[in-house]
Structure formats: structure tokens, C-alpha cells
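[agent] plan:
  1. take the single chain provided in the ticket
  2. run structure prediction with default settings
  3. attach C-alpha cells to the ticket
  4. add a short note for the reviewer (M.T.)
[agent] executing step 1
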Amino acid sequence: MIIAPKIRGFICTTAHPEGCAKQVAEQIAVVKSRGLIENGPKKVLVIGSSTGYGLSSRIAAAFGSNAATIGVFFERPGEADRTATAGWYNTRAFEQEAAAAGLYARSFNGDAYSDPVKAEVIAAIKADLGQVDLVIYSLASPRRTDPQTGEVYKSVLKPIGQRYTNKNLNTGTGVVNEVTIEPAEGDDIEQTVAVMGGQDWELWTDALLAAGVLANGVQTVAYSYIGPEVTWPIYKNGTIGRAKEDLERVQRVLDTKLAPLQGKAWVSVNKALVTQASSAIPVVPLYISLLYKAMKAQGTHEDCIEQMDRLLRDRLYSGNPQPDEAGRIRVDDWEMEPALQALLAKYWQEVNTENLAQLGDFDGYQSSFLRLFGFGLSGVDYSADTDPGVGIPSLPQ
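[agent] step 2 finished; step 3 output follows
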């Protein structure tokens, strides 16, 4: 079939296998251009490995450190008349590139919150790797089923205490407008914490510890975001912020649990980037558009792969992780540089539909969004007949 982007709201409902393969190859090239990570990880589990920061983490570990990797995700395969999700094609491309480089790569497609998937992954670690020395937790989902009770929790993106109104970018039209979001009510906070907090990260760690598949000196890292004050009502001080606070609580708990192995848990605060998750958050796309323009002008812009390579290369495995006062690793440091944030605060007050192209990088935002789904990459023939039903080598066909 001829595969073209079909956009509905903040989601693209199609993905291009060749385009996804091209962007995976480009990420690999970035990592390889920087050389090997000295004393880097060798056996890595990535929970949430098919898109965004999770995919880039897997690529950085494999091609920056020659690591064997196991990836866990929940993606939809393609059919004769329907494309797979982008994460499916990303994983196919990653496994093909890993095989060509002689690297072990095995993937599991299923509900990572469930006990059966945890058991299946642990069995594979025992059989194939023995133990892992790095566990990356990068799940982002709107809902989670509790493996003990069967209750389904649903996360929401809402402010707490009062409604929130601010500027917003309609990413379909390029119009700068206003958005008003009603505050959390009922058990919205508890539900969001149950999905996006640290509970499942702790359950994974407990299961891996009990099975004896964590190596001495193991590190585990989960991802977070703080951002500027303009986004705080909907993020840092909103329901999702409460979930991230819980993530930091669990990080401290895991430090204690990993101490007998001389292990360490981290929360890494990453930069704002166009991902499938961030595109759904009101206010944030406009901020990202302004951020991209300013950081590209400064020469400090990074995409997911540069961020994750820097996390592994310069923080986790450099001997100098540079934690902040709360013990978090900050690879959002270039974004949060005070002079840059002062400039962005000025632009935020000034930006409107008419001057968006001058102050922001809406074209860059749109390009990054389409690239998530394999569209807009050079060297890909988008007019060619393409098979959407391709499989992932390590998964049953």
C-alpha cells in the first residue's frame, strides 16, 4: 500500500516502516560518531523501549556500549490494509541493525504492567544473559491495570486546585490560542499517580531482585520532566507532577533495596522534546516550538538520542553523575539555563499567531512530530508500494 500520514488531533494513525527504519539508522549514526562509552553497560533491560526516550536509550546502550538489550513494549502489528504503530517498525529496524552489528537484541510485546510479562522477561534474562547491569524504565501510558487487584487506573493531565488558562498552540493549524483546563476532581490525582508514578517501577525491581537477575553494581533509571514555570500548573504542580513526585519517592526506596548489590536508582530529568507523550499535553507544544528556535540558534538543541547518549556517556558511566540537590540527574540543564529561560519567558509574553514563525520553530515542531511516525525523512520513497505487515525478528510471526 502507499502509506501517507493521517493525523487525528495530536496522534498520527499511520506509520511508515521504511521511514521509521531511516530515523533509527540516523540515531545509531549519532551514537557511533561519538565512539564507545567507556565502562558502559553490557546487559540492558529497557521497559518501554519502542519510541521516544526509551527507544533512544536502547540505541545508545547497544551502539554506544555494544550492550545486549531486551526491550519491552506494547505495540500493534500491521496488517495487509493497516499500518503497524511506529514503535513496531522502530523495533523491527533496531533489531535488524543490532543483528547486522552482531549484538544480542530480544523484544517482548505485551502489557509491561502485568505479572506474566514480567515473568516472561525474567525467564529470558536468565536463559540468555544471566543478569542485567542497567534497567531503564520509560513507560508512558494513559492507563494501567493493577496486577494484584485487576483495577484499571486512568491518568489525566489536569491542574490541581483551580482551573488553568494559558496560551496554547493548535498544532494542526499553527494558530496560537488559549486553552482552559478544569482542575482535578475525585480521585484524579490518585489514579494518575497509580499509572505514571513509581509503583510499577518498584514492582519490576522487586521481581528482578527476587529472581536474582540484577548484577552487582546495577543501575536503574526512570525519566521525568520539570520544565519552566509557565508549564508548572499543567505539569510540575498538576496531576502528572504528583506522579513524578511519587517516582522520586520510589527512587529513594529502590536505593535502599539495591544497596546490598552496591546498586543505584536514579531519576533523570530530561529536556522537553516532541514525543508521542508530550504532544498530548496542552501548552507544552507552544513552549517546545519557542525552545527549539532558541536552542537551535544557540547550537545547544538535542533530540532524544543526543539526550540519552549524554545521560549514559557523561552521567551514568562517567563516574560523575552530577546529581542536583534532590539527587536527580539533570540532562535538562541546557534547557533550564537561566539566560535561555529568561529569553523564553519574554517570547512567551510576546508570541501570537502572526509572529510564531519569527519567535518559534513551528516547522521544526511539525517535522519532529511527523518523524516520530517515519514521515518526512530524506531518502525514503513515500510514493512506493510498501508492505505494512512486516514482522519483528525476535517475536513470533
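[agent] step 4 note for reviewer: The two ends are 20 Å apart (CA to CA).
[agent] ticket updated
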